[in-house]
């Protein structure tokens, strides 16, 4: 699990501070906003409480926030200004993830306990928080569950997905870093990520084939049932006949 976070309510439960004062601390980098919740409220890093206590101690001595920011390096108070125009990520609570994904909170809780689903962080009080990307991850797990995969298979798929994501995220960080990364190392990692993605695609191809076979079989049952209706003069819907099953297919590579 990632480092714990502090919610706005948790951090300022024992501290009286106006929203304007808090906003100024955030703007000056005296409080690091690592994310926001779905309502727009700030989420702070694990050192936020210690950081706030240092700031408030200097405020009581008569210092203004801008003065504290100016001398912060001298007194050992780190600052963390967010890059301009870069918005912090938005994190979701489990009830919000359930609403947006269509999967119940009980199922999400079980997946978290089993390690199939992982929160990106948790608050100081222990509330798990999920990234917005988790919505699509949960929907994909729901699809696999509908396809008949068991818990062990879901865990395997989830772990493979996390591994690919971690590898690609690391490569993106290297691509945007100031220092030059070793090209051969990057080449090896790109090849590894591609191999893992192809492995997942092969598994999807097997599922697609199974779905098409079942669609064909059900179509045959439908036709046989319609013939029985005609023999006995019964009313009923006509068979849909052979139709093309719309299953997401592999994208053509450029």
What can you tell me about this protein's structure?
It is elongated and about 95 Å long. The C terminus is likely disordered. Among the domains are: 66 residues, Orthogonal Bundle (Multidrug-efflux Transporter Regulator, Chain: A, Domain 2); 101 residues, Multidrug-efflux Transporter Regulator, Chain: A, Domain 2 (Orthogonal Bundle), CATH 1.10.1660.10. Helix 5 crosses helix 7 and helix 8 runs antiparallel to helix 9. The longest helix is centred in the last third of the chain and has 50 residues. The protein has 254 residues and is an alpha+beta fold. It has a six-stranded mixed beta sheet with strand order 1-3-2-4-6-5.
Task: List its salient traits.
single chain; 254 residues; disordered C terminus; alpha+beta; 9 helices; Multidrug-efflux Transporter Regulator, Chain: A, Domain 2
Question: Into which percent range does the helicity of residues fall?
Answer: 55-70%
**CATH architecture level-2 label of the domain at 91-191:** Orthogonal Bundle
Radius of gyration: 26 Å
Total helix count?
9
Uncertain segments of ≥5 residues (pLDDT<50)?
249-254
Terminal CA distance: 37 Å
């Amino acid at each position: 699990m990632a480092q714990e976070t502090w919610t706005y309510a948790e951090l300022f439960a024992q501290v009286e501070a106006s929203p304007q004062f808090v906003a100024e601390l955030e703007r000056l980098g005296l409080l690091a906003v690592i994310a926001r919740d779905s309502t727009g409220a700030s989420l702070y890093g694990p050192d936020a409480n210690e950081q706030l206590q240092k700031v408030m101690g200097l405020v009581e001595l008569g210092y203004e926030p801008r003065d504290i920011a100016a001398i912060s390096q001298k007194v050992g108070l780190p600052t963390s200004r967010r890059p301009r125009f870069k918005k912090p990520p938005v994190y979701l609570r489990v009830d919000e993830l359930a609403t947006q994904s269509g999967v119940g909170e009980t199922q999400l809780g079980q997946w978290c306990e089993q390690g199939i689903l992982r929160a990106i962080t948790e608050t100081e009080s222990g509330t798990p928080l999920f990234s917005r990307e988790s919505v699509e991850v949960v929907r994909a797990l729901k699809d696999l569950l509908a396809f008949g995969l068991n818990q062990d298979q879901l865990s395997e798929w989830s772990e493979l997905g996390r591994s690919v994501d971690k590898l690609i995220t690391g490569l993106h960080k290297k691509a945007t870093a100031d220092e030059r990364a070793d090209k051969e190392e990057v080449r090896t990692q790109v090849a590894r990520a591609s191999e893992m993605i192809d492995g997942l695609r092969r598994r999807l191809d097997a599922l697609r084939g199974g779905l098409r076979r079942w669609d064909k079989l059900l179509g045959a049952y439908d036709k046989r049932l319609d013939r029985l209706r005609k023999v006995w003069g019964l009313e009923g819907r006509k068979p849909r006949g052979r139709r093309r099953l719309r299953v997401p297919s592999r994208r053509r590579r450029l």
